[in-house]
Amino acid sequence: MKQFYGKKIFGLIDCNNFYVSCERLFRPDLADRPVVVLSNNDGCIIARSNEAKALGIGMGAPYFRHETLIRRHNIAVFSSNYPLYGDISQRVMDILMRLEPEVEVYSIDEAFIAFPTTKHLAPEKYAAFLRNTVQRNTGIPVSIGFGPTKTLAKIANRFAKKNSDAGSTFVIDDRHCLETLLAGLDVDAVWGMGRRHAGRLKKQGVRTALELSRRPDTWIRKQLTVAGLRTVMELRGIPCIPLEAKTPAKKSVATSRSFGRPVLTLSDLQEAVATYATQAACKLRSNGLKTTAVHVFIRTNSFKNEEAQYCNSRTLTLPAPSSHNATLIKAALASLRAIYRPGYRYQKAGVLLTGLVPENYEQLHIFKAPDKKNILLMKAVDEINQRWGRNTIQPGSAGFNREWHYRQQRKSPAYTTRWSELPIVKASFPETLSVA
DNA sequence: TCTGGGGTCCTAGGACCC
DNA sequence: TCTGGGGTCCTAGGACCC
Predict the structure, then answer these.
(1) Does A323 map to a domain?
(2) Through-space separation of residue A143 CA and nucleotide C14 C1' in angstroms
(3) pTM for the full model?
(4) How high is the mean pLDDT of chain A?
């Protein structure tokens, strides 16, 4: 780091087309074929291989709009397989954590690292080493960007991705390199500048990241609030967003899904909401948390202009923090009954838990002793479902027919997380092989 | 027929208190 | 009967991220 010497270097390691790369791990026959992965309910395309991108398939594009193109080009299509992606992600992160003391797991497919400039004398070489290690040990290709701030590491990473010939790594290491890069970068490609911000900036004549970085602070603050100002400082090479190596405690937990078909009746909605409350409660327990507020929402399909629209939500505060299925279901269903209106075609429902507290935090209810039996019961339920599959034991209110349940027609096996779905390898010896 | 899900942070405005 | 300013807390909505 020539001009940035003496400071910290931030690195962003980003798995290339992560979900697609995970699917390809166990399907080497797909190495050169275009591949896409779909969102829940097989609705949108949320990951594309480079070949699929080249065919013009955009991020988040509705699947049904591209069906013809997909057939014509023999594109492989997968429903999302989160247990698989989560497991592979963990393996990638484990490797990074073995090599670096400070790792921030930023998302399922990205991690930041930070180290003093003196630690690794040639960042270019170190980036190549990291990349090769992850590739060799997991089979997942990554791109790596280094820069003097997290925002600039993000930008370096973007150029690394485009630069697969140069080893999929890129280092921003002096003022000239930085300014050349920013001058060629659209504002909406800057981390933290979403569509709204970028639109407003462009109206005011700010088109590139370099132009943005040269605007006065007061102007930025007014247009984009303090978060925007932080981003601009980072573009100038001044670190404002620290590395967070310790995962902060969760503040909310949500479970929501679109339905596989429109839902009209209260009883179907009740099954769905009870199911989501159960899943959310399970997430709470696995994070060692309890909730104090249960929020429920329902909504019709806003893409259907010709249909009557309705959406509503309600929050219920619990008398004492809880993570017990029955308690959360009861609260969620009470809210649902209050907001349900007949005569609409509902498309989505969800349960959001907020006001989370650690499970050992005992805000005792005046009239009720803590229910030890329930705690043991939930523990047993979680262990059984963990071992035998998610719905082995479920509350009756979550329903058994589940006609509203979302579609997932093209899911790959849970190759690495279920014994029954492990890939099978068959080896055969060629006849000419002589055994000594 | 068919358009995802799960998060965080910031701000403005209202309620409330002294 | 009339009247002030400042502070805190909470919530809803908007913006962003992957």
Answers:
(1) yes
(2) 32
(3) 0.92
(4) 92
